[in-house]
């Protein structure tokens, strides 16, 4: 069935054709040839459009005949811009060639340059005779709403009345029920999700009123990422009862594109949600939208923006959902795992639109495999969604370490378990007990692991991540820290964005390279290095997940950084009992040991750290396999000697030779 919007345009063009036939008949009473054919075609189009109705009842223009089945794009556009009947006639005349090829033939016959378009002169004949009417038309086209709002265009370089009338790019299609946007405006697919946002909506009541009342203002929504800001903006528009369209706003866009955006948005009846694309992410330039008579939402990353123009502006910051809100979010997004919502809230503090994407993936998986989703499925879906977002210098790994793999003193293990408990019980402490009201910064957990290489710092990170059901994002600081001024901060922003998207444990090894004591300022590089450290400290405080920083040299760290940590875990070289446990851990029960192997003597005689013990056990196994024998004392001692050599330490010798 033909679209009702397109049928309305056909009908109104036909009725306008009747008026145009009357004008031509009066101007050319003895018309022959092409003009006579034009009059005949226009009259036939009019007869089809009036469908037996009395012509006397068809006056008043298109606005006097609103459709019974709801507002048409033409009526929405006219109402928003306060267009009159004459304005609508000009728009219909400009678009007639798009309705039927017969109109194009007629217009080509009547155009002074033979174009299949309506000329300004033809519009003057249609709207009334006399020089006063022509002067009024010229004023209407040169300074009126139609051109200023981007609804109509004038083409051609000749005399004014020989120029052509055209509707705005793509606008006629929209008036006929089409959905395509012009080439300069690219729609973005952003999920609509509002779970857990009740508190944020309550704080955005003024913005919601502005949307409902169609106030001419810009609502600036800022968040850690543009995607999050766009999703919040779309959710806010829906909360206010408005349809919204999310669009990429190109850098360097001019006033003509702003007018085109306005015409399309008004005809569609949607709120534009604009995501500026900028060369420098630190300073996006906001569109002015000076002539747009409705609210518009502009989405930016938190930080500096560059407003322009006198248009009123309301700013909204997209605060992260609190633990209780995250639980509500997961309950709404994944009702199949409603009982697991507290666990999901702890492990995956996503934004609502991200949770909705994960839920979409899980429903597809459930339909394919024929079972309800599980926590493991959620982890896989989150991991899959985050694969494409890894920043420079970030490597992802999926840990499989267990608490039994970690040989540490009891008090150190207790610290690690306390860190996990902090994440698990955030909702109770921060929300129910209201500690969030006095807490500064984010609700994440930050740990420092300090100790010599090989003492288990990296393994402890993997154990924590496994316990929480998360991956590890390991940051290679040698690729993040740059000699170029300002580049390190940009790289760090990418690191945190990747960690938040992946919902993984963030691991900075050799953290003293970045968190070291701030320098005395002697040049621009020192000043920027201190600014980078300050940025990193502030950003680390806002990180909502688990961040672990490891260092071999605790004394080199900035005291200001140490004060921002919840846990400081010392990793010391293992004692004899711990070394024995490490040997037993790294020599699996299935590995054949010769009778001359005495693990207690190895632990007593060779003061190795866990990393060296693991390496020695592994190397000795390969030596034995090459000889097709069990792992003997000689294999282990040989492998231990190699570890001493790699560490640059003197080998104590073979204790059996003494």
From TrEMBL:
Domain of life: Bacteria
Official protein name in the record: ATPase family protein associated with various cellular activities (AAA)
Family (UniProt): Belongs to the AAA ATPase family.
Keywords attached to this entry: ATP-binding, Nucleotide-binding
Keyword Nucleotide-binding tagged: yes
Xref: PANTHER family: 26S PROTEASOME REGULATORY SUBUNIT (PTHR23073)
Record-annotated AAA+ ATPase domain positions: 443-575
Family matches, as InterPro entries: 26S_Proteasome_ATPase (IPR050221), AAA+_ATPase (IPR003593), ATPase_AAA_core (IPR003959), P-loop_NTPase (IPR027417), WHD (IPR054472)
GO terms, molecular function: ATP binding; ATP hydrolysis activity
Record carries keyword Glycoprotein: no
